[in-house]
Design brief:
five-stranded mixed β-barrel; OB fold (Dihydrolipoamide Acetyltransferase, E2P); 104 residues; mainly beta; globular
Length: 104
Amino acid sequence: MERHAVNTQRNGMLPAFNRNSATCTDENFPPPDVSGKAEMAEGVIKKVLDKGFGFITTMKGKDLFFHSSAVQGIDFNQLISGQKVTYTDGMGKTGPCADNVKPV
């Protein structure tokens, strides 16, 4: 089998990385920040259920689901309604959710 060199340059520029599709596209140049440092948002615990999940009211007034596995720095059972938290936006199986939930 013969190997061919892959030319990664187009018009003198390297294509950008698109992390959503794991392919390179020119319209996303320069590449997005993939350092893993997501921006933390603030919210307030609306409800914590014994079933292992709860809801955060965001600063925009929307409710956001979170799972007990997303809570960090405190035990899930110690969260109370009205408590201020920070979180990162995530995407769950059924839609938007909160990840890295931490008490303030």
